Input
Amino acid sequence: MEKKTTSAELKEAIQLREEIKIVHLREMRTNFSIIYERLKPANIIKSTLNGIGSSPNLSKNILNTGLALLAGILSKKALSIGDSNSKSRKLLGLILQLGITNMVIYGPDAIKSFFLNVFSKRKKLD
Output
């Protein structure tokens, strides 16, 4: 910083510094209001849900898991194993449900290809 020799130069430098201070204060207030809005709980939840919804793999995984749980429950109900009073039959039903659920979760491509092969063979026979 160079030394100011006249009072006019000194007043000019003070005026410039005050204008810079006003600009910085406005920027700081704007940034503060933006941060304040982003940190509201509703906005945090909203942005999180938007991020989750935009992920294609997540929605596919949720769908596969839901289908797997449904397949496990339906297989247990179809065999009426879960309705008995015998503890061994209930255990067998839970093991069957868990096995089918895991099979659908971890091998959806194999199951899809199996059903595609079955239906394609059926169409050839017709």
About this structure: The chain has a mean pLDDT of 79. Residues 56-125 form one domain.
